[in-house]
Amino acid sequence: MKICFLLVKKIGSDIGFPIGRIDHAVESWAGDYKKALASSTNAVFLNLFQANKQGIAGKITDNPAFAIVGQTGEGKSFLTKGLFLCHSLLKALTLYIDPKNEMKAQYMKIKAKYEADFPKMEFEIEQAREAIEDEEQLYWVIRGIEYKYYKPVVDYINNIHFVSLDAKEENNHGALDPLVFLHGDACKKISVKVTEELLGEKYTKEDKFEIAFLESLDAVMSEREKGKKVGLLNVFERLLDSTDEMISTRANLALRKIKNSQMELVFSHGKNSAVDMDARITVLGVTGLNLPKADEKITSDHKESLIIMYALGEFCREFGERDRTQETIIFVDEAWFFNKTEIGASILMSMKRVGRSQNNFLGLITQSISDVETEDDSTAFGTIFSFREPTETDKVLKYFKLPVEETTQAWYDNMTKGQCIMRDPFGRTARITVDFQLPEVTVLFDTVETKMKNTKVVA
What we know:
alpha/beta, 3 domains
């Protein structure tokens, strides 16, 4: 029996980056993605920035948010990094949150590999200069030689601002301190949230301590507005002088918990600069985060990582919100981590609400379709990709508003590695095979988390 969405011949954008082909089959390709590609003549092009543009016929949503969902090893990381690379070539400011701090090492590895052949490239260019007198011809010959040795790939890598936050390095202390990169109500809210996570009931159980903390925070924020360099540590240090033993003791406890921990990225004296928000392409990694697995409960061992992720989330919101005339695109890897707590979920919701009016395109990379479900249309997703997750077949089909029946279940369950279900802002749904085509570039996407080596192995 044929179902209408199996006949879809077009999905994505009219003009955009090629990201793969539509797969019209229901059966499995048994891991042979080449057969899936060869069976289809319907290419998929995508420009995520089209999502919030007005006057495009047929669009049913202007929501710029996008999500990439699926279990590890199915191709989620490969697609994410491909979309990051493609859209970072455009004029928007691009930010990739890399909680596992894995991208920089891979990019530097490939850069070193290509640069090792640059002496040969320079020799060939010098020979060309000696042999060719016509300037235009020489220009194109040199360009050809540079492409032969992948110099454009190296140039691209050199344009990325890699930030690896390591609390062991003092110059990173305070890089995510709210009193360094935020102002006003936004600064106050996240300062309270990270302190609540730090102290738990010792913050919320006693109104007296909470009041004292808020008064101290207001005082330190006032000092900051007058030009003084301050941070969250100053808030607690003021409380040490309290005549109330309970207040001074809890402030001392907070300072002791923070000292020599990863939390020094968030709690500081404000002496160092925050992460630069003006670089055109930024990959922001954090060294040593202890992230629980998706199905694992949060324990005290994860508290430090929670606090850092909260600050990262607020950084993303500020990055997308501060200049509505500038298009920004953010890729948040391991986004499911925010849904582990009520505080994290509220921060994630505030990130998503930045959205269309601020020209912010937020991408959440997560493991379960449950992480992207919402009853609020304003925080839904205009574009979504779902890789195979065997335990969520029916849940995924329902999310995509597809009938839950034998054919659709087989259609989803039979996806091979490198395939996903895609829905675009026009409401079209299709099974696609991901293919970024250039192994010289896709080798950048190889990480510990993905088994996809390049497009010659898996789409």
